[in-house]
């Protein structure tokens, strides 16, 4: 029973030792210098926060051509760690420059040396190539002398050496051979001693007797970090420079205005952060192990996928080879058939010419026929023979080969194919699409348009994602609504919420996968449902002065002769013609919104709404008005009516002229045009590309907006005791274009003033 317990105890101890050994071996990677791949010896902290041995750093600077920037050689500790027996073998083979050459270099002004004028016009900046991050690090003028030693890393390396017994026991440096094992170390003497040698070199009653013994070590460190510039102990930490500083560094101009804290505060803050991060990592070991398993599974999938990709490429290339081989065989067969045909024709021509030789073939037969004396028989035989002889004579006179020996018509032009094969490469995912902001807008529906960059691989289809930004954020990742497999370069998002802000993005997809997302585009939807209507010029419209488009969504006012005659009578009496165009839909409830674009070159245009009955009554009878100050908005802009009238006006118009909008003093504005004491005075603002009109029938209010940014321009009261119609007034030349609806509108039947119309 006791033997079983002892065996379990021994097994548990061995398992613990194995775990400790494994963890120490894994930690050894953090303790290797990136230059010599050995344990750090007097590591220096580079500005990029990486570490490197001091001796290795000097060697790297020497290879870069910097001499005299490795710090003060006398400051190198004379400890066993710096002796040739324990230094890296590479460093023992390094040849140092001769003293006379160093003197010549120093006198010529190369490097930093005692006596050099520090206020030189062109101080040399030392560039150190960091072997860890492969970046160039600036060390300043002082080179390695301006860097701190990483004493914490030295202590970790020493503890690691003691735990794994790297290098065996530390021997006394002052014993006669064979040396004994060291039992003490002295920081002041920078050496290790056995008991007898320590007593011998630290005699009682001398200054050395006050040296405090330490544990034997291969690397002697100072008691604390010293400032490289002033050789004083560092007491503060500069957050701006992220560097430890001493008391003298604090008062220097270099750190003027920087955030400097005591080193104790920086120590506590960094220790708390490191402890918190380490606690989180140690508390999520299961997550780390799960991610390791996931990465290992990813590695296996990568190996399998890579092999499949190789096989697919090989199969495709073999397919190309098979197609080429098949094409080669067919082309060679065509050449072979052409060659055989030509050879047959040339052989027949040779046979014909051989028959023309004396005594053979056709000539011999003709000679024999000429010997015939019977005239009828001769005529019978010679008739056919004469035709053959005539053809042979003609062939002789116009000799030429029956077929050409050249095969130039069988040449192949493979330039395009060779270029395609040369450019044959793996298919790349599409690049991020570019949103066409000129064609993308939100009205009754949202229309999104995009295009691919010029040199982007093609996309088979697109994915459009959108979401509202004015809703409360839900916990967790942001949720997007998607429209998958969109063909073409535009998409229509139906039934968006009114008065909302949507953010949209799109990305392409092909056989290689999904590409990057486009930049987000934000679109404001109208504040109310969109009202669809057409222009009706029957009320107050003159066909001579108004031209309505065939689709009844645009109108243009042509001044013509009446305006010229009015200008002629300007000094005696001016009769200006006012032309009005109404919408064919009347609003009787709810909120409605529509938008239009006014030509900036228009002389005077009024856009707004009014009671249907009042509009018909005002403009059906007398279109010409005897007053240059006539205004159909009943006082919003004209100031002609009595201000004491409390009744709501039947009209509400926004006055536009010569690319400007007149904001009258009698209406309130949402654009910051009102002061604390009351409405602001009349002023003008630039005409936006599109104007929006929002009618709230229940509240009796009309708002005029910038239809692009939905910034409020003007808000007016309105008498909504009856049906209200959109209206447009023209004085002089002008043009108005209603904004086209995005979606296809259904057929609807409307009734205005007893007339029925079917769209």
TrEMBL record:
The keyword Repeat applies. Residues 73-89 have a biased composition (Low complexity). It comes from the Eukaryota. Pfam families: COS, zf-B_box, zf-RING_UBOX. Belongs to the TRIM/RBCC family. This is Tripartite motif-containing protein 46. One of its GO terms (biological process) is axonogenesis. Residues 222-263 form the B box-type domain. Residues 513-747 form the B30.2/SPRY domain. It is found in: Cell projection, Axon; Cytoplasm, Cytoskeleton. Interacts with TUBB3 and TUBA4A. The keyword Isomerase does not apply. Residues 67-98 are annotated as: Disordered. SMART domains: BBOX, RING. Residues 370-427 form the COS domain. GO terms for molecular function: zinc ion binding. Its main location: other. GO terms for cellular component: axon cytoplasm; axon initial segment; cytoskeleton; proximal neuron projection. Residues 429-528 form the Fibronectin type-III domain.
